[in-house]
Amino acid sequence: MFGITLKLKTKNRKLDREMPLAITLITLMASSGISPYESFRRLRTVDLLPATSDQSSRIVREVEVLGKDPLSVIEGKAASSGSSSFQDLLSGYVATVRTGGSVVNYLESKLRSAFELQTALAKQAIDKLGMIVDAYMSILVIAMISFALAVSMTATDVPIASMPPINVMSALIMIATPTISLFFIYIAHTMRESTIIGVDKMFRNATLPVAGVTTAIMVLSFLPDLRYIVSSIGLAYLLGIGLIGASILPMIKYERVARLNISAERAMPRFIRNVTEIRKTGLSPIRCIIQSARGKNYGLFTKRLNSVADQLEWGVPLRRVFSSIKDELRSWPVLINMFILLEVIETGGGYADTLEALAQSSERIQNIEEEKRSMLKPYVILPVIVTALLSFTTMVLIQSFVSISEQPLGLIEQLTTTLSLTIILQSWMSGFFIGKVTSGAFAAGFKYAVLLAAVAMVSIIMTSQVDFNFGAVIKS
Predict the structure, then answer these.
(1) What would the mean pLDDT of 157-172 be, rounded to a whole number?
(2) DSSP bridge partners of 331
(3) What is the mean pLDDT of residues 124-134?
């Protein structure tokens, strides 16, 4: 039951996310003389709007297979939809048709309100993500410091009520901190989505090499012939080096894809605006696209737009032109805006007013995404500072109590290694949490994982090189 409820919530959230662009397409088609019901028929095949496509298929199926009245079907879908945005769109459309109002005017007003709502929801989501980041960092700091303090007090034979053995506590912290990270990563996953399609496949492909490296390092510590490697470098540092090394290649792959697609996202509104302004001079829509695409101010997107211009000059059909763009780019806003542009022109609706509406829509989408990125940037700095302070504080605390410990030296070394391993592993995992929060993609977390793991290792190494003999003060 819980799984079904969660699936419905996810579907409704995706539908709400797609609504501004779906309404944009329906509005532009309505401006070209195409009815909203006919727009739903076209939306069935738009795989870039999967949730909207699914709902459109349901509407069309009931009309064409069961022979029901389109307005009655749309009204019924409005009543049963779990998405408030989709419900408002359908119910308002039915009411407008039945009262004899202007469908185009209604859709245009709905389009404006959809983007206003999207902007407000984006700001709320950023505030919630900020709270999640603060809570995650606070819980990690409290957990690690509490553990270090508890085992240190145990090591010094200070009487503490009902304290488990150090080995048990070490195993507990090795399990507890990754579990905390996975929990918060899941929360971030439900709240943030990437604008780049399919990049999480990079993350899944990279998990096998990372798991292999981690397993190989752990096996080294159990092989007598190779144990000298672990003892000379240190198991914690060896793990850190392995995790960083395994993360570099997927980090580079993702950054190449992200750089191209983010550049395209920033250039797309400017390209559509150029098409719109040239169209106002009376040039044909196709010639407007060709002339606009020949511009040199689109960054990494320039090469792809030049390819579009070449294909249109050769007489390649619009759908094949879009397919070629889809093969090269993964940015959802870019692809859907390009699809709408070509779809509107193909259906004979490439009027200046229609393109003006599309240009405004594209600019609003880009403004929302840019605002998200700028507001989430500070949350990259916070984990770096917390990781450095956490590594430093925890190791200083252990170092101080070790100097007055009554426990065997081997147990103390095991404790220090366990804490170092936990801090480095935890820092590496935190990178994926930050990547998901700031970019919406787990693959974006590789660069943060490398950064945080390196910060943790440097902090631990620097702490081990200085004698913080606070234990002498305690002992005296």
Answers:
(1) 57
(2) 196
(3) 82
